[in-house]
Amino acid sequence: MANEEDDPIIQEIDVYLARSLLEKLYLFQYPIRPASMTYDDVTHLSAKIKPKQQKVELEMAIDTLNPNYCRSKGEQIALNVDGTCTDETSTYSSKLMDKQTFCSSQAASNVSRYAAAIYKKGELHLTPLHGILQLRPSFTYLDKADAKHREREAANEGGDSSQDEAEDDVKQITVRFSRPETEQARQRRLQSYEFLQKRQAEEHWVHLHYYGLKDSRSEHERQYLFSQGHGLAENTELIKSPSEYLMMLMPPSVEEENDKPMAPSNVLSMAQLRTLPLADQIKILMKNVKVMPFANLMSLLGSGTDPTAVLRCVQQVALLVQGNWVVKSDVLYPKDTSSPHSGVPAEVLCRGRDFVMWKFTQDRWVVRKEVAAVTKLCPEDVKDFLEHMSVARINKGWEFMLPYDEDFVKKHPDIVQRQQMLWMGIQAKLEKVYNLLKEHLTPKKQEAQSAHPLLVTGEQRVNMAKAKVKQNYGQLEKEFQKQKAEMKSNDSSAKVDVPNIHIKEEPMSEEEPMDTSAHEGLNNGLVNGLHPAQGPAEPVNGHLPGACIDRVAQELKAFVSSTFKKQFVLTLSELKRLFNLHLASLPPGHTLFSGISDKMLQDMVLDTGCKQILVPFPPQTAASPDELKVYALWEAGDTYDQHRQVLLEIFSKNYRVRRNVIQNQLSQECGEDLNKQEVDRVLKVSFCSLW
């Protein structure tokens, strides 16, 4: 209050906003001139502007009679620029430097806070500026003088040469053909300094007429700096509170924020990272680290983070390899990108990197030459894949970067099994793309291999199960006697036939249980870092609980029915692949994870109305036994049932049939004269999965 009393308000001034010269008013800042040279001493000879660039060029006369002007220096400059000849192209026609050119440059990129003010009769009129241009002397005449000097030297050298040469020397000409320009090269060219300079030079100058300070036209234009109307409608912007008014006059500067030092793109600030959503945090961390144990990931996310939410998010951007999380290939190589080494598109890079990751799910060691031979990628790309997740060992190959994480596998068996299903789907795709052989599917034995036990064959698993049954026989017998005593004490009406109750042993048949834990075709080595002892618990004695059997049968029947209604003909191999993908989409702990054998799956196929088609494949076929078993839905209830049955009968006699034979057979059996297009439609509908 004391300060306000010491500084009283002397006068209140009304402020008006003038709009007549809005987006037309520029402020020119001239260089400092000697005190003896005033604006009256300088005459503007010409002016021109490039509107898009807001670039102005002024040509101003110099008072050569001023005592501050050095005449000898002016004559020397004119002589250097124009030489001794005087014509229309001369810069200084008077053989004296009597004019100077000024070129403009933008003084500020943001001029919204600046205005031109004029005070008259107790009123302050403001006009917003559209641009602030600083005028600086242009020395292009020096370039012209250098060019003249080089021309004179070239002429002198030409005069001293021999005049006896009747014809010019033959010169070799190199012809180059430009390659097609890629989109990335085009973007770099458009952003280059040379292109921007060329584009600015292509804009034409617009010549202006200059009016002096005391000219009548200048006096007329100066009146537009005053507000034409003092009504409220004209100055609604100024009807603001004091704080809003000051904010309009002095908005916060954006340049201050840009002055802050920027961190490199490969440096990650943990403080800024933790402000992002959890999914983005995990994606950024995995993209930077590439391979990480789950415990390390939790420590980077900070205390209080829910492990369940982290597990849900990390599965979206990473895959499990030997108990550790490895970032997915499509995260590192997004769509529409390419290799910096070979230019290979991202889709091919993702397949090659997935193959390397899949090899590490089987073994701790990978050979670089083998990967290059299968993927057909350049050595630099293959090296990048391996460096993401492994370390080179001399005379051994590439070893997986991190040790096997037993703790995570034991604590999260459902996550491990779900990842196994995903790897089975990836393996099936890789087999089709790369035509993998058995030597690629089976890992090699190495001396320095992990000390963890290898997976055993089907026969060994059966023997182990039988031994386990014999060990548990005494305990099971005691439990049965206890249950029988309880039933007698409760006077149960149900009678138990004791002789018929026995401990069922594992069948000694050649039919192995279908492997639903990513072990198919991989009888040795690590499979996603999971060992047999750490897999899902098997049912006691090979049996499921009674209530669970019905639920499993219902779920399995629903899957088989829906699958054959979409694809009427399937091989056992394709059906198992679809079933594994179906398991991968189920939540952890689902009843189908209890274990489904090949025999159970085939019996369910026959129970749902399908038939096995005994296609007579040639003996020398390279197909696997599961690919030779073909099942088809006999009656689907659609209009193609009869045609489909005829086709199945045809293929049960021969595995390869000509189209005209199929067309004739369909016409005879169905009584329809089918053309080629209709036959193709029947084949496509009936054998969509094999088409």
From TrEMBL:
Positions in coiled-coil regions: none
GO cellular component, one term: RNA polymerase III complex
One Pfam entry name: RPC5
Bias-annotated ranges (Basic and acidic residues): 146-155
Domain DNA-directed RNA polymerase III subunit RPC5 C-terminal: 444-689
Region of interest (Disordered), ranges: 146-169
UniProt xrefs under InterPro entries: RNA_pol_III_Rpc5 (IPR006886), RPC5_C (IPR045576)
GO biological process terms on file: tRNA transcription by RNA polymerase III
PANTHER family per the UniProt record, alphabetical: DNA-DIRECTED RNA POLYMERASE III SUBUNIT RPC5, DNA-DIRECTED RNA POLYMERASES III 80 KDA POLYPEPTIDE RNA POLYMERASE III SUBUNIT 5
Protein name (database record): RPC5 polymerase
Gene, per the UniProt record: Polr3e
